[in-house]
Amino acid sequence: MLRRLRIENLVLIREAELVLSPGLNAVTGETGAGKTILAQAVGLLLGAKGDASVVGEAGEEAYVEAELDVPAGFFDDDLAALAELRPADEPGLVLSRRVFADGRTRGYAWGRAIARDDLAAAAERLIAMSGQFEQRRLARASYRLGVLDAYCGEEQERRLQEARSAWRELAAARQRFDELARDGDATRERLAGLEALVEDTGVLEPGEEDALREARERIRHVTELGAGAVAAREAIEPEDGVGAATLAATAERALAPLEGLAPELGRAAAELRDVTVRLRELSADLRRFVEDLDADPARLEELEGRLELWADLKRRYRTSSGEELLARRDAARAELDALAGGGDPVAAAEAELAEARERMAALARELGDARRTAAGPFAEAVAAELRDLGMGEGEFMVHVTERELGPTGSDEAAFLARPNLGLPFAPVASTASGGELSRIALAIGVVAGGETLVFDEIDAGIGGTTAHRVAETLQRLAGRAQVVTITHLPQIASAADTHFRVEKLPGDPTHTRIERLDDAERRAELERMLGGEEFLALVARGERGPTVDG
Question: CA-CA distance, 467 to 474, in Å (whole number)?
């Protein structure tokens, strides 16, 4: 879900921040007020080309930022590299795009620079937008298959997770077999390398490297540690003179005789007695700390030597950390143990590869069976929605065909439509117009769900009864996905859970403002969309008929 959208100096928008609701969000305004700038902002996050023309007059760059919630497993597979940039305390995803005055652009995730393609790939997983972006999504085989799988339900999602895991296991098994089967010398060399790794690192223990560094730093700074501890002890309980412990005891003795006269002083006296005891215990702890400080040069040399052993082994086995080195050792030990019983390692790897292939093939068959079973009902459900949305007979088909085996199985789904009778069925991405693509995306979203859907052309060329049906369909979609629609139709705006108005403000230069409307402001905006007070008065007197239903 898109939680927040921030826009700065984009065309006419100086600064805007939209906090969006989970349901249906409508954006309205006069023609020419700048509603399409909002679509441009989302487009930049989806990878649209940026140039100097979108930079406003209020600065030397334009900036768009989105905060998004992400589903479980979002950073698996293709987005695993993006996950490495994710801050530890950040549950969601923050994407942004900056356009400079010279036309250069830069994408960011959590404020860290990323490639534009990576930005678009992450955004497209969470945001679907009408127009050219919907055309691009529908042209992508992985998207079509994902939509069909979403319609199949939770059991299909479980199969997909198992298939992705099985695919990784298959790739690992294939790599092991290839390495072992390359030739006998390579096999022997690999086994010798595993044995050397286990032997060389056998003396290393988990957590030892950090403990060695800590001990080394302690010895290196023994003078500062000792001086600080001595100074602290002198302040608490000096050898000569009065310290904090003595002062606390003196204060307690001053109050003790008075407890009978003023019982409320008893608590203060008790706390002072406790403080005195704790200060003296602390003084003893500091004394022992100083006595136990080890400044032995031989010990420091021993620690340095042990740390150099760790560093040398990490360099030798090309690992970036001690944890990785020990993990490599454990894996090598496990592999050697598995081979200790004898047998042909190449044959064992081949058997493992065959087993992995069969598991992946079985999961691919299960996925394919579910898709072929669901294809007909899914197409019929989408077609019914299209008919309600005024798209002729709403003819829509899904063809599931075989392709090369991959992490999602061995199927490919084609979405075909026939907007007009007499024409052949053709791929949706290439046969539908911009407005038709928006309504097809709406129908698919109602049937299969989604994350966040942004519609900029959903009301193109419609009105009257069709507009009401589109509004009703958007409401139903908002029950299972977040919807943002930029519209000029009051039927759609009145159905929204949250309403934003785009308004052009005169000035030097002219600029655009986007604000969230309260109930009274919303009624006024809907009245404006219906023609204003004078128009409604004419309708009420019967002097002019309404141009929209209701």
Answer: 10
Name the pTM for this structure. Answer: 0.59
* Bridging pattern class, strands 498-505 and 511-516: antiparallel
- Per-residue pLDDT tens for 285-329? 878 877 767 666 777 788 888 888 888 888 888 888 888 888 888
pLDDT digits (tens, 9 = 90+) for 183-207: 666 667 777 888 888 888 888 888 8
Q: 45 with 454: CB under 8 angstroms?
A: no
Task: Specify whether the CB–CB gap between 147 and 153 falls below 8 A.
Answer: no
State how far the Cα of 451 lies from the Cα of 454, in Å rounded to an integer.
10
Region of 5 (left: φ > 0; alpha: ψ -120 to 50; beta: rest) is beta
Amino acid at 461: G
CA distances from residue 337 to 3, 136, 174, 195, 344 in whole angstroms, order as listed: 52, 51, 21, 11, 14
Nearest to 180 by CA among 193, 169, 167: 193
How buried is 197 (Cβ within 10 angstroms: 0-12 exposed, 13-18 middle, 19+ buried)? buried
Q: Side by side, which strands form the sheet with 452-455?
A: 112-114, 105-109, 93-100, 61-68, 2-10, 13-19, 511-516, 498-505, 24-29, 482-486, 452-455, 127-129
Q: β-strand 395-406 against 409-418: which pairing, if any? A: antiparallel
CA 248 – CA 244 distance, rounded (Å): 6
Question: Which candidate, 140, 165, 152, 70, places its Cα nearest to that of 109?
Answer: 70
Return the amino acid letter for 518.
D
| Local confidence band at 384 (pLDDT 50, 70, 90 cut-offs) | confident
Predicted local confidence at residue 541, as pLDDT: 46
> H or E segment at 316?
helix 297-316
The token pair that represents 359 in the structure block: 């598991």
How far is 170 from 352, CA to CA, in rounded Å?
9
Q: Tell me the CA distances in angstroms from 460 to 208, 383, 426, 436, one per residue in order.
A: 68, 20, 22, 9
8 Å CB contact between 415 and 441 = no
Please state, in angstroms and rounded to a whole number, the distance separating the CA atoms of residues 470 and 474: 6
Q: What are the backbone dihedrals phi and psi of residue 544, each rounded to the nearest 5 degrees, phi first?
A: -150, 135
Work out whether strand 426-427 and strand 409-418 pair parallel, antiparallel, or are unpaired. antiparallel
- Give dist(CA 465, CA 491) in Å, integer: 10
Beta strands in 102-221, from DSSP E residues, in sequence order: 105-109, 112-114, 127-129
CA geometry: angle at 444 spanning 439 and 447, to 5°? 130
The strand ranges marked E within 407-509 are 409-418, 426-427, 452-455, 482-486, 498-505
